[in-house]
Fold this sequence. Notes:
The protein has helices at residues 18-31, 43-46, 53-69, 87-98, 101-105, 108-117, 124-138, 152-169, 214-222, 240-253, 257-263, 269-294, 298-327, and strands at residues 4-9, 36-41, 78-81, 144-146, 177-179. By secondary structure, it is mainly alpha-helical. The chain folds into two domains: 4-185 and 297-327, 3-Layer(aba) Sandwich (Rossmann fold); 214-291, Orthogonal Bundle (Tyrosyl-Transfer RNA Synthetase), CATH 1.10.240.10. Strands 1-2-3 form a three-stranded parallel beta sheet. It has a two-stranded parallel ribbon with strand order 4-5. Helix 1 links the parallel strand 1 and strand 2. The longest helix has 30 residues, at 298-327. The mean pLDDT is 96. Ligand 1 is lined by residues 6-10, 19-20, 23-24, 42, 45, 133, 136-137, 145, 147-148, 150-151, 154, 185-187, 196-198.
Amino acid sequence: MTKRILSGIQPTSDSFHLGNYLGALKQWVELQEGNDAFYCIVDLHALTGEIEPALLRKRILTSAAQLIALGISPEKSTLFVQSHVAEHNQLGWIMECIAGFGEANRMTQFKDKSAKGGADSTRVGLFTYPMLQAADILLYQAHYVPVGEDQRQHIELTRDLATRFNSRFGETFRIPEGYILKSGAKIYDLQEPTNKMSKSSGSTAGVLEILDTPEANAKKIKSATTDAGREIKFDEKEKPGISNLLSIHSALSGQKISDLEDDFAGKGYGDFKAAVAEVVADHLRPIRDRALELLDDEQHLVQVLHAGADKARAVASATVAESYKNLGLVL
Ligand code: TYM
């Protein structure tokens, strides 16, 4: 049966990284086949950090180019920008009025980010961020939400808010499920393989970027932190660096981790890293080339996004109307 799929990504860096790709975007591409998929560049969420207008605009368009380049087809999926569909703000407010302050205060992403930034630079929007994310999902009556492990708590909150709304005001929202893979759901920083690969990490030395040159990424892989010993073996506790590289190779090449361990038995870290660099380059090179090509025609990208927003709005406005009616608002 055709399922409704919804996911989103923030346009907060000059390039998506391999964690985004393996944790989420690869599944976005797979799930657009035979399903009704909605993929959103969540620019309003990106306003919760520092805002640099020229950079933000560029990053929104670069996000769209990368998504199309890595296989999101605007014909098969509905690809759009969150701020083009005002219903996200409308339902976002409703979600804020359904959520408790205490439960919002338990969101670990908020705690981590606000602890890093300090009270003065932490925006109220960062606190209410998960309620807007809940609205993103519920507007489209999504069955599945393909995301990485770090989004699990936000999906749980979304389910709680939808369940609460439905039981208080009548069946309105489908209760969505996270679509989180076992392997690849958390890709780690190459330099600090116990931290997730992240655009907000202090240095980019451990972050493999889709739009980086294959040479730059190969260099990062070759200087990735490795562990004591010489064996190529998956052991997240004792060998987090090698385990991370094994996960990356396996997710991209489709080879099982145990087969890779056999193939590299008796070989050194240098050989293994060279093989990982090659797999990464083979995958990312065509994506990078296509994305750069698409960025040459901004007008076309904007047209594609507007067409996506029109399709998204048709679904989103029906959900807002239903929720308003059930709340007792006069339509
Ligand atoms: P964002 O923009 O930080 O990341 C986009 C997606 O990439 C995944 N991801 C990772 N997966 C594996 N390993 C990593 N190191 C890694 N880093 C990031 C994330 O889990 C995510 O799936 N709050 C969301 C954006 C959002 C959203 C939504 C997602 C807004 N509304 C509605 C789904 C549905 C976020 O900040 O993702």
